[in-house]
Structure formats: C-alpha cells, structure tokens
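User: Can you write out an input/output pair for a complex, sequences first and structure second?

Assistant: Here is one pair. Inputs:
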Amino acid sequence: MNAVTAIIHRDLLLAMRRKSEVLTALFFFIIVVSLFPLGIGPETALLRTIAPGILWVAALLATMLGLARLFAPDHADGTLEQMVLAPAPLGLLVTGKIIAHWITTGLPLVLLAPVLGIQFDLDSGALGILVVALLLGTPLLSLIGAIGAALTLGVRGGGVLLSVLVLPLYVPALIFGAGAVEAHISGLGAGGHLSLLAALLALAVFFAPWATTAALRIALE
Amino acid sequence: MNAVTAIIHRDLLLAMRRKSEVLTALFFFIIVVSLFPLGIGPETALLRTIAPGILWVAALLATMLGLARLFAPDHADGTLEQMVLAPAPLGLLVTGKIIAHWITTGLPLVLLAPVLGIQFDLDSGALGILVVALLLGTPLLSLIGAIGAALTLGVRGGGVLLSVLVLPLYVPALIFGAGAVEAHISGLGAGGHLSLLAALLALAVFFAPWATTAALRIALE
Amino acid sequence: MLTATGLSCVRGERCLFSGLDLAVEPGEWLHVQGENGAGKTSLLRILASLSPPAEGEIRWENTPIKALAEDYYRDMLFLGHHGAVKEDLTPFENLTLSSKLDGTALDEAAALKALARFGLRGREDLAVRFLSAGQKRRVLLARLAVRQAALWILDEPFTALDVKAVDMLSSLIEEHVKAGGICILTSHQSMPLPNGKVLKI
Amino acid sequence: MLTATGLSCVRGERCLFSGLDLAVEPGEWLHVQGENGAGKTSLLRILASLSPPAEGEIRWENTPIKALAEDYYRDMLFLGHHGAVKEDLTPFENLTLSSKLDGTALDEAAALKALARFGLRGREDLAVRFLSAGQKRRVLLARLAVRQAALWILDEPFTALDVKAVDMLSSLIEEHVKAGGICILTSHQSMPLPNGKVLKI
Amino acid sequence: MSNNKIIHWFKFASPQSFYPLAGKMIPWFWGLTAVFLIPGLWISFFVAPTDFQQGEGYRIIFIHVPAAWMSMFIYLVMATWAGLGLALNTRLSGMMAQALAPTGAIMAFLSLWTGALWGKPMWGAWWVWDARLTSALILFFLYIGFIALQAAIDDARRADKAGAILALVGVVNVPIIYFSVKWWNTLHQGASVSLTKAPTMATTMLWGMLLMALAFWMYSIAVALTRVRAIILEREAHTEWVKELDEVKA
Amino acid sequence: MNWGSPAEFFAMGGYGLYVWGSFGVCAVLMIVEPILASRRRSDILRSLRRESLADKLDSQ
Ligand code: HEM
Ligand SMILES: Nc1ncnc2c1ncn2[C@@H]1O[C@H](COP(=O)(O)OP(=O)(O)OP(=O)(O)O)[C@@H](O)[C@H]1O
Ligand SMILES: Nc1ncnc2c1ncn2[C@@H]1O[C@H](COP(=O)(O)OP(=O)(O)OP(=O)(O)O)[C@@H](O)[C@H]1O
Ligand SMILES: [Mg+2]
Ligand SMILES: [Mg+2]
C-alpha cells in the first residue's frame, strides 16, 4: 500500500513539475469542443442536439492524448524496469499510476464539462447527468487506456497505434455516456445508461490493472 | 536542392520502415469520423449537415497527432543537431521535412475523405469541393503545424502543449475549408472560400519554413 | 549465492552464447567481459530476470528466480544503460522517491549525505536534465550507496564518470563485496579489485 | 586554425568558465579535460556553434564562425553524446543518408567498406535498435571515417567501445591529425597520441 | 547615425535603466486610472439613461466593450514587443511581452465573461457560436498558448524567442479570424464606433465607454509595469546592478 | 439620476445578477491582478535580500 501512495505521490509531483501539461490537457478539451461549432456552424438548436456527443468525443480524445505519456517516459528512462524489479507487486504500482493519471486528466475534465455544456445551451438537469456520466466514465477511460498504453510501449509509431487500439475500446463508454445525456434531454430517464456505465467501470477496475501489468511485462522482455 | 531530396527520401524511408504509423494516422481519421454517429445518433439529415465540419475537424486532429513526431525523434537522437550543422541551409531541409510530412499524413487524408463523405450521404459535387478544399488545406496544416512542432521541441509537456498552440492557428483553415463545402451544399458558390484558402496557403509557404527554422535554432541553443 | 546453468541467449537468428554456467558466492564479484555485441548486456538482463533465457535456469540461494519473483527483486539491484532517473525531478527527489518505491524509508539527512558523497553538493535542487552526463550517473551511484541489496548487477557502471568518481565507485563495490555482497558487472576497462572472477563471452 | 578568445559560459546562475582562450593549429589535437560537470560538453557545443557563448568569439581560419555559418559546417564534424543514428534504419542506410545530407555522395562499396572496418560486417542490414551499445557507437565511427572534414569535435567518443574499437578510433584520429586535420575531444581516459595539447577546465 | 546615438537610444531599452523608470511611472498610471475610472463609473451608473430596449442590463457595455478592445489591443502591443525583441535582440522587449500576456488574457476573459452575462438576458443564451464571440475565444486561446509556451521553457532567453515567434504567427491569425465575421451570419452587434461613420450611440453612453476604456488602458499599463519590474528582478537577479539596488541592500 | 433608492440601484431593473456579476468579477480580477503582480516582486526581493545577507555573513 505504501508503494501505491509513493507512486501516486511521485506522479503527482511530476505533474506539478510540469503544471503546464495538466492545464494544457484541459485547454485541449476546450479547444476541441470549440472547433466543432466552427466547422459546423452556429445554429443553437443543432448544436444542442449534438452537444453530448461532442463533449464525450472531446473527453475521449483528451484522455487519449495524455495516455501516450502514461508509461513511455518511465520506459525511456529505465524507471519502468526498476518498477518491475521493485519488491512491491507490479499490479499495485500500475494501479497507482492509473489513479494518478485520472486525477491529473480525468478529474479536471469532469469539473470543466458543465461550463462547456452551458456554451451549448444545455439545461441544468442535463448538465448534472453529464457530470455523473463523466464521473463514471473518465476512470473507465483511464483504466482501458492504460492497457493500450502498455501494449504499445516501445512499439514503433506508438502514439497513433495507441489511439487506433484504444478508441474502439472506448466506444461503449461513449455510447452509454453520451446516451445518458441524450436520454435525459429527450425525456427518457438516464438511469439505465448510467448503471451500465457503472457496471463497465466495476469490470474494468478488476480487469484492467491485471491486463496492464501483463502487457508491461511483455513490453520489457 | 540535393539535400532536400535527400531528406525527403530519408523521411519517406523511415515512414515505410514504420508503415504502421502512416496507416494508423489514417485509421485515426476514420475512427474519429465514425465516433460521431455513435455519440450523436443515426439521423441522416442531421449527419449530412454536420459532415463537412466533422470531416475537417477529424482531419485537423489526425494531422496534429503526427506533428509531435515531426522533429522530436530527430531531436532526441541528435540528428537535428547534425541537420543544423549540415552545409545545406536549414530552411531547405525543414521544407523537405514538411513536404515528407504532408506526403505521409496529408495526402492519404485527401484520398480517403471522399469515401468517408459518401458515408455521410454527401453528393458528388460536395465531395469534389471537399477534396479540393482538403488539397489546399492539408499542406497548410502541415506548414502551420511545423511551426508549433518546432516551438515545443524538447519542452516539457510537449505533446499537449503543441495542440494548444496549433489548434487555434488552424481555425482559419477549418472555417474556410468546412465553409467551402457547406457553401456548396447550401447553393452558394464555394469559390470565395477556396480562393481564401489558397491565399492562406501561399502565405504559409513563404512564411512557415522561415518561422520553423528560427524556432528550431532556438530549440537547439 | 547466484548460480546459472546452461544459459543460452538467441537474438534474431544469432546465438549469442549457449551452455553458459556461472556461480558467484557471497564476497565475490564477477567481471563479464567481451567485445562489443558479444552479449554482455543481454546476459545481465537475463540474470536480472528482465528477459527470459532461451534455455537454462538461474537460481538465487538455490531457488529458481522465477519462483522467487518479488523476493528476488528485494535482494537485487540492477542498473542498466538507462539511468532510471527522472529528468524533471531533482537528484534529491529522485533518490528519496526511488527508495520509497523500494520499500525502504530514507530520511532527508541520509539522502543529502549520499548525494554529497558523490559530489552533488549544490545540485540537490537542480532538475536532473541540467546535469552533465557524469553527474547524472552519480545520482545513480548515490542510489547504489543507500539501497540495501545483496546482489548488484551493473551494466557498464563506469560510463561517463571521471577518475575520482571511478575510484569512489570501485571502493563502493569493494566495500559491498567485503561485507558479503555479490556484484556482477560489465566494463571495458580492467578492474584491479580483490576476489574478482572474470567471465569472457 | 581554430581560435577562441575570452570565451565564457553561464548555465543557470553558475559560471562554468570565463576568459577561456584556445588556439589549435592544423596537425594538432586538443584534449579537453575536467571533472564531471566542469563544462566540457558545454564548451564543445559552443565551439560547434550549437549554442552561443555568453561572451567571447570563435574564429575559424581567422573569420568569426558566425559570419561563416554554412562554410564552417562544411569544414566541421561534431559528434555529441547522442548518436545521431536513426534506430529504425540500418547502419548502411544511416551512413549513406547522413553523407547525402552532408552533400557528399558515398557509393555503396565505400559505405560497406567503412562499416566492415569497424566490425559491423554482418550487421549492415539489421536495424540499429537491435545493435549493442558499442555497435551503435561504431556506426558513428564509420561516419567519421568517410566524412571529409578538417575539424573534428568529439564529445566522449570512447564511450561504450571495447579495447579493439578504442585502438581503431585512436589510430583514426592519429591519421586525421597527421594529414593536417584538427581534432578536439573530451575523454576521461588518457590518450597517448603525438601532437596533443591538453586543456583543463 | 553615429554609434553613440544608437547606444543612447538603447539605454532605455536596458532593464537596468528601465527598472527605476518604471517604478517612477507606476503611481502616475494608477492616478490616471482613477482619474478616468471615477467619472467613467459615474456616467455608467448615474448619468447614462436606461435603454428603452434592454433596460438596465445594457450597463454591462461599460466594461464589456473596453475589455474587448483592450484584449485585442494588448495582443498587438505584445506581438510588437516580441517582434522587436526578436529583431533587435533587446532583453527588455521579451520581458515586456511576458508581462503583458497575463493582463491581455484577463481582458479577453473579462470580455467573454461579461458578454456571457449580457447574452443570457438579451439573447436567452449564455453563449452562441457566433463569429465575434468565437474569435474572442480564439484570442483567449492564443494568449493561453503564449503563456503556456513560455512557462514550459526554463531558459528565459529561449522562452522569449519562442514566444515571440508564436505571437507573430498569431498576429497574422487575428485579423483573419476577426474578418471572417463577414462570411458568417452573426447575432452579435457589429462595430458601432468607427472613425468614418457618425456614432450611432447616445453621446453619454459613448462618453462613458470611452472613459472606461481609457481607465482600462491606464490600468493595463500600470499592472504590466508592476509585473515587468518583478520579471526584471527575477531574470537579472545575479547582476551587479540588482545587488546594488537600495531595496535589495536594505 | 436614474435611481430612486439604493435597493433600486442594486436591483438594476431586474438585471442585478447579470450587471453585478459582470462588474463584480471585473472588480475582483482587477484588484487581485495587481496584488499578485506586486507580490511576485516582493517575493523575489525577499529572496534577493536573504542572499545579500548571506553574502555579507560569508564575507565577515
Ligand atoms: C460571450 C459573449 C460575447 C463576446 C465574446 C463578445 C465579444 C465582443 C467583442 C470582441 C467586442 C469588440 C468588438 C468591436 O468593438 O469591434 C464586443 C463589442 C460589443 N459587444 Fe459583445 N460579446 C459578447 C456578448 C455580447 C452581448 C450579449 C451583447 C449585447 C446584447 C454584446 C454587445 C456588444 C456591443 C454593443 C459591443 C460594442 C460594439 C461597438 O460599439 O463596437 N456583446 N463584444
Ligand atoms: N534481431 C537480431 N538479429 C540479429 N542479431 C541481433 C538481433 N538483436 C540483437 N542482435 C545482436 O545481439 C547482440 C546484443 O548484444 P549486447 O547488447 O548484449 O552486447 P554487449 O556485449 O552488451 O555489447 P556492448 O559492449 O557493445 O554493450 C549484438 O551483437 C546484436 O547485433
Ligand atoms: N540551470 C543550471 N543551473 C545551474 N547549473 C547548471 C544549469 N544547467 C547546467 N548546469 C551545470 O552546468 C554544468 C554542465 O556541464 P557539462 O555538461 O558541460 O559538463 P561536462 O564537463 O561535459 O561533464 P561530464 O564529464 O559529466 O560530461 C553541470 O555542472 C551542471 O550542473
Ligand atoms: Mg552492452
Ligand atoms: Mg559531458
């Protein structure tokens, strides 16, 4: 347990050392969201219908961009080798890294999403659902993403390959997440979608650290 | 001139060596475009209106992803130092690298876009305009992107910072590019938008390699 | 005691070595020698359990290291070509955080002392990326000095070090071996330390 | 002839050296020595015009190198800590492409000969990332052998090389200097070559 | 021109002589801020009549428009300083650009914020993706990019140069975004103050806006000078002249 | 004069929230920004003073 807090501490420290990185991930989210109206045009009604989809896709992309740096720097400078050789079980360390990743990328997105939602003229009920859905969804994105990051570690063309691997895996989160908000807007309850999202999250919490660990061991062989 | 062809040759060779990277940029484009119907829902009319915007945003993001790797590997392994110290003017070498980047990421997007356009039920006239707009727009994206890539070279948090720098600069290309297709669809001519795009491209061809070179020299100091 | 029997290593279609046996007792050190590309790094990574051998088995205190897993890691310290230092953190942070990961608590004074011992006085709070090549390696040496491990596996530890640092490291190894530790290392320079065995591949 | 007058170099708030003068004539070589972190790498990068000095001026054949720009680059070859070899390309491709960039055409036979001379026979078509640490450096030595440049600036060129390769490189430098070239290098080992000057910082 | 003259001219561009000069100017600019702000606020709240369409809500205009103007103006000034620094290699220019960026970003933010608070009662939406609004947003992003880039680079000189290139590239972008209004149907009001046409606004409103704009302008100068003094000290911390400063020796 | 009473002034004809929200945030930012800027200067001054003190002690 000590090792988990140590690794979370270290990763947060590193994130603070490059504060700009955390902030820019946020701005990336904002910018991507703002690009769509620029490309699509300004009609409010149209934008309101596609808002949940756009917000979720942007959240997906923002999480994904940070993924490439989840293990790669540790791999490049040999820290990952040292983690494998640390006396603490690798699975725990990996969980710690995923938690730190969520705190630095997922959580800020959740907090920011309502503001962007307002720009698309969503009402307060829809905003609430959006936040809950993201709160369930972003840890899921970090967990799934970690598997992809580990699989593409040290592989040529890692960055883009990573997105090709991970984005299809993100589709369920996208469908249920954006679906929840849309269901709410169109008057159906969002409950079903949200509980499915929660179920996926529970599954990932058990499964993803294990798969990530296995992938990391393979990458280092 | 010899040096330019040498560098294009080398970069294309490297791209072939990691074929997967070129392909995955394409796949990224396809996947991002396909995510939207998933997040937004299947109504054809709605999708048709937002198609140009989505295709352009996806093209922007796909180009941007590859940018991080435009100079970074050369920087990391010291090749960039050697380029600066090469007898050929750095500006020429940089132009060569930008051309190679466009051939490996921009051109495939142009070729693929009509296929994806068909999926969104665009008619053949609109598809033609889409291709022309992308043909003018993607080199512009590579040129502007190169400046951002050079500026963020070796900087902490490079990848995400890069997108925050570059995406706002991409906005004019996005507005005129997507605007051209929309203008055509809504019966206005696309000519105005296209000629603006061409003017921007001409401006960038002169200005961008110079700015990129200056940024590279700064990065290496 | 570390023993390996019948190790072989294949890279691509090339067999780097095969049927390699070795045994190193506590209080001994082993100098792995060979030309560039002979397979020294590959051997050391196999001994550190970072990559599996094509054939053969490695035992630590008579138990196969595969079965030991984390217990082996606790006893072993591997320093490879890569520094495993975070460029964005300071030497001090690097040292304390890596020892936390190793599960040993290191107090501030001990960390500062170890850094000062390796000539990093005044650089404790400078991000590692500003350090010179040799200073980066010195951060690793400080780690070597504070981590309690019976088995050291060091791949070219003398790279980039100046004469004084080479001496410091040599005496560090000597101490470690005298105290009953084991050290396996590669280096293209010769090392005049007692109790050394040489393995040529 | 390379001369530098009143060079000083500041990193952060630290002044690494100041008022440094040097002059190296054709047929001479200069061994820059100093402890880890003394500023050898910084000096070499300044001489190679990769970073500007805080003060002072560098002249090549009596013209300031700033004014020479590309003409200086044509006469000069810099090998730094980083290999400047592409890990994805083979040694052969690395060699031919880098000489194309230098504006010199290198035919296939010459490239293969240079690689073979440095013990890379049989590895010409293996991507560099599979090579051992020493073999990677040997690719660079091959570049040294084929590139015609009057001034060599080499930062720790002996790193990772085995005894045989160190000898080869030494004789390469000797040849170069005998033929009227200039070589400036850093190394923590001592080098018994004729016509050497030593600069301590 | 004689060499001496150049040196004389550059003297003011040196941090050493600018530092005390800025110190002397700051109180004056604060004074000017107050001089414009007090009558400006007075007109905004007590003289300008209620708008017959928008009621009292329109009073936001008295900070919205000055903030919007300043955000664009500061960007141009910042880019000019940055460009000068790149061309002439003067140390002070980069510091000025760096000192202006946060103020510009705050102005851009204020124009967005007040615009949003105005939009809700007037248009019924906090935000629309209209060209004017979007271009203000992009301008804000350009500021953020500039600040983030400079923050990410440790070496101050390198940060200055890199920031300068970005600012210059961005400046090409600003008019393009701004004029793209023409290709878009727009909900937002067009420029109603122009040099060529007679103002369409009530004269009291115009006066209020102009006074407030002047106040914002003076404020920006005062803050930027305060910040540049801090930046000068940070960067020149180890020079002799800083060590000789009274406030340091004390 | 537009206002009959202070209450009317603060209500802003029903737009109080929007008007005061704008002016309030504007005021806060414009008060905080100069404070932060001068704080930045006093921070660096403090460390400079400490350094010059240390120098003095060294030379003694
Ligand atoms: C978030 C929303 C808004 C943003 C980002 C924004 C941005 C701007 C900008 C950049 C300007 C300066 C343009 C110029 O002077 O040429 C401006 C001016 C102005 N804005 Fe807004 N605005 C917003 C909302 C509103 C709203 C809701 C209204 C009123 C219903 C409004 C009314 C005005 C007026 C009257 C001017 C002055 C135009 C002139 O006299 O030149 N704005 N705004
Ligand atoms: N895929 C492959 N195909 C053929 N040979 C390979 C392949 N991968 C690695 N090799 C060879 O395996 C060897 C790896 O050697 P290793 O890195 O262990 O050498 P080393 O003894 O540490 O050398 P150095 O002294 O240079 O560090 C090299 O000779 C390399 O050329
Ligand atoms: N920002 C900074 N602040 C303080 N000191 C710095 C900063 N950046 C670099 N340094 C110092 O400058 C020196 C750089 O040295 P350089 O890399 O030139 O050394 P070197 O002589 O090549 O050493 P080595 O033998 O280890 O390669 C180091 O001592 C480093 O600690
Ligand atoms: Mg090796
Ligand atoms: Mg060095």
